[in-house]
Design goal:
This protein is mainly β. 0% of the residues lie in helices and 67% in strands. It has no helices and seven strands. The chain has a seven-stranded antiparallel beta sheet, with no helix packed on it. A hairpin with a 4-residue loop joins strand 4 and strand 5.
Amino acid sequence: KCICSYDEENRLLSKEVAKWDNVSKKWIPRNRYSYTYEDDGFTVELSRWDLRKKEYQPIAKTAYQDEFGNYIVMTQYKWDKEKDTFSPIGDPFLMCPNNVFYAETIKP
């Protein structure tokens, strides 16, 4: 099942996914997606339920930021347990919202 919450602007704030456990006859949390919004974009954070600790543990997040009014910069992060924070994965990715991408054709 999914449980969603929204803010006063009807934007998605969180989506929790649970799985039915036939043994305990209970819904067991699985994943949670948390959304935060800023003037220039938004961030989606993924957390996974830890059965031992009985709490969500951060896994990854993706930030989407508006650049130059025509492009979106997507940056991905993974949870770094040693640093107890998110660390970027690779380079940011530039996207065109109108789905027009320019690339050079490489011939073999």
